[in-house]
Design goal:
about 350 residues, mainly beta, binds zinc ion
Length: about 350
């Protein structure tokens, strides 16, 4: 088994070998869940419960949920995993790329990967353009290859590896902590109902992924229109809650080029997945008396307690924001620290 960081950020794979005995506590008892409903997950490989240790030190029972890699469905249940991308554009003036988050000085923010960005990045000293060929230099962190020459940095686009599985440990009963836990760059947020990892912000373009040398500065991770891409191991993950992605594009002016709804059905009120502390994550509104209603009482983690379609008695849950990324930026409850996971094998 190897453990892989949650993001597509470096020039080399971050896989490392770990002791395989970390799976020996697994049991096969059936779930007694009242919050996380295993039957809602699409394409789940196996589920059960196991003893786990949470970030607050508590020993408790966790769901153990296993999924195959890169399996993406739309809201109708149709498989759309072949539609990942577009990622890095083919040429300097091309409009066929995805989106990214630039944190340099010139023209920062969430934006489409176009000439405007390349020019701003060049202004900041990051040359991603092969001027001879007129192409964007593109690096595949999984294969360690770069296309294009005469560049000092690259657009990052890891290729897929469809031979992986991912395992999540989610507490059956959420345990609130005295203060919320912030979710840092590329740290796990939770999982979608397809079992696709929800992750924190992509790596900084200026400083690179956390823990890597600043020499990688200037490499921009590419995201597709739904906010997803493959990590250096080839595992697809979301930096946007995809059901609300087009609302984010509208809020950031990227909607003229980007459209997630062609792949993932957009919904203001959908249950999109679960956070790593066991609480549900919804799109940006609640369905109240048949009307999609934007909540006005959200806490610092973009969560609140309210009735939902799935929990008519009310439950604490998170909402997508209209920021980019639109993930919760903190969690209210304790969680299994899978910072260097999802566990890929
Ligand atoms: Zn990522
Ligand atoms: Zn709500």
């Amino acid at each position: 088994m190897s453990v892989v960081s949650g993001c597509n950020g470096g020039s080399s794979t971050t896989s490392s070998t770990v002791d395989s005995t970390d799976t020996t506590t697994t049991t096969t008892t059936s779930s007694t869940s009242t919050i996380l409903d295993v039957s809602l997950f699409r394409s789940i490989v196996s589920s059960g419960t196991t003893t786990c240790t949470l970030s607050n030190g508590a020993s408790t029972t966790c769901h153990k949920l296993v999924f195959n890699d890169n399996v993406i469905h739309n809201s109708n249940g149709d498989l759309v995993d072949d539609d990942a991308g577009p990622f890095c554009p083919s040429g300097y003036t091309m409009l066929d790329g995805g989106v990214g988050i630039y944190d340099g000085a010139s023209g920062p923010g969430f934006q489409s990967l176009t000439q405007t960005l390349w020019d701003n990045m060049a202004n900041d000293g990051y040359d991603l353009i092969d001027e001879v060929a007129g192409t964007v230099c593109i690096q595949d962190p999984r294969l360690g290859t770069t296309t294009g020459e005469n560049c000092t940095a690259a657009c990052l686009e890891a290729s897929a590896n469809d031979a992986l599985t991912v395992t999540y440990l989610i507490p059956v009963t959420p345990q609130n902590t005295t203060s919320p836990t912030a979710i840092g760059s590329v740290q796990p947020v939770g999982l979608s109902l397809d079992g696709i990892p929800f992750a924190g912000t992509p790596p900084s373009v200026v400083t690179g992924p956390t823990g890597m040398a600043a020499a990688v500065g200037g490499n921009i991770p590419s995201l597709d229109y739904c906010g997803g891409h493959h990590d250096p191991a080839g595992y697809y993950h979301w930096h946007l809650i995809p059901e609300a992605a087009d609302k984010v594009h509208q809020a950031h002016g990227t909607d003229n080029l980007a459209n997630c709804g062609n792949k993932i059905t957009q919904s203001s009120t959908a249950l999109t997945g679960y956070a790593k502390d066991g609480y549900p994550i919804y799109s940006y509104a609640d369905m109240l008396n048949g009307v999609a209603t934007t909540p006005t009482d959200l806490d610092g983690c973009n969560g609140h307690t309210s009735v939902t379609a799935e929990f008519p008695d009310g439950i604490y849950h998170y909402h997508a924001s209209l920021d980019a990324p639109n993930m919760p930026t903190c969690v209210k409850g304790a969680f299994v620290d899978q910072r260097s996971s999802p566990i890929i094998k």
